[in-house]
Design a protein that fits this description.
By secondary structure, this protein is of the alpha+beta class. Helices cover 65% and strands 13% of the residues. It has 7 helices and 9 strands, in the order H-H-H-H-H-E-H-E-E-E-E-E-E-E-H-E. The chain starts with a helix and ends with a strand.
Length: 283
Amino acid sequence: MKKIMIMAAGVIMMAACQNTGKSNDQLQQQIDSLQAIVDNKDGELNDIVMTMTEVQAGIRRIAEAEGRVTVADGSPEGASSKEIIRDNMEYINEAMLKNRELVAQLREKLNASRFKSEKLKSLVDGLQSQVEAQDLRIQELLASLAEKDSTILRQVVRIDSLSKNMATLEEAHKEQNGTLMRQERELYSAWFVYGTKAELKEQGILKDGEVLKDGQFNKDYFTEADIRQLKEIKTYSKSARLLTTHPEGSYSLAKDGNGQYELQIINPTRFWSVSKYLVMQVK
């Protein structure tokens, strides 16, 4: 009987130990679950605080840029002060857009967070009020600049509009410059050639005794020149005559010190008024 009592006591103690182990495991699970909730809330709070800090930093940088604009606006008019204003206003517009986005994100994070705090909500409201007040000051600054100088106003328009139009303006500017260059080249370009009768015939320039008869001639055989720069043409020949028509008195064809003919263009505008092609036959 005594042995049976001892064995029963041992079974009870083992069962008690097992129950205690299970209770400890359950307690640890509950602690871990609570810690995860705290950690999760800490993570949410950290994210919200970091976003608020970023907004505050943006507000400070915008205020500094406002100060630079005000200083430049009070400086004597010049390209440098206008450039300072333009660059800082572009930065301000970008920073204001970013701050508005961050405040909107803060609202969303607070609404989604399980951590509810009227104080935290009040802080976000205060940040939004600062952003709105700063935006109002920027609009007033733009209006002030517009009153002083409409040119500055055009230079400090909102960056989103400027970026959309910049590529189009640059392309149009390039195209316009290209057109002007082509027109200038066409206006001031002329082509001349000199050669023997046989050479001119071979290139289709002289046909049946007529020069440039049908337009079917070798244009690459001619030399292109700017009529503003072309003043004289040496023929390196002791016999030369013009086959194309050019007004009398606008040129002179005479021999140089070596007895070779040289064409002197006296009045370029008149000389090239009839034809932009000059053909001279030499021997």
